[in-house]
Amino acid sequence: MPQQRVNKEQRRRVIKRANGVCEYCYSQMAYSSDPFNAEHIIPRSRDGVTALHNLALACFGCNNKKWTYVTGLDFITQSSAPLYHPRQDRWADHFEWSATHTILLGLTPTGRATIDLLELNRQGVVNLRRVLYAHGDHPPYPIDD
Questions:
Q1: Which residue from 34, 35, 40, 70 has the fewest beta carbons nearer than 10 Å?
Q2: Which pLDDT belongs to residue 15?
Q3: What would the pLDDT profile of 21-62 be if each residue is shown by its tens digit?
Q4: Element (DSSP H or E) covering residue 129
Q5: pLDDT tens, 56-84?
Q6: Please, which residues have CB within 8 angstroms of residue 84's CB and are 6 or more apart in sequence?
Q7: Alpha-carbon distance 76 to 66, whole Å?
Q8: Cis peptide before 139 (omega within 30 of 0)
Q9: Interacting residues of 95 by C-beta distance below 8 A, sequence separation 6+
Q10: End-to-end C-alpha distance for the chain, whole angstroms
Q11: What is the 3-state composition of the chain as percent helix, strand, coil, each rounded to the nearest 5?
């Protein structure tokens, strides 16, 4: 029997848990012209379940780039690395903001592979971060999160 799709209550809970922020690139729903999704961290095609522990809030860009991937290439080690897992990993262990708070930097193979594969520094996202930072609305969480 095929897995269930994300229902309205699960979606509501995922949005609330993430405070309306993409759990990968930290884009904010409030400033997005595209929809956000409750995405499967471990894709259904890889036997991931439709349950809160396997769902993350993802902006349109991150969701489309992640697709069914669970690993990516770390450009420094030239090795495969697991992608960032929002339910198991601590964001600040794998990423930090540049001095201008507009570019995400990878601290680990997981961070670097995730930034590269999901293109977390897409030009549109960087431009939005720049504007929001100048307005005092970025980053959405404390920097030492």
A1: 35
A2: 98
A3: 999 999 999 999 999 999 999 999 999 999 999 999 999 999
A4: helix 123-135
A5: 999 999 999 999 999 999 999 999 999 99
A6: 24, 91, 94, 95, 110, 111, 114
A7: 20
A8: yes
A9: 84, 104, 105, 106, 107, 111, 114, 115
A10: 40
A11: 35, 15, 45
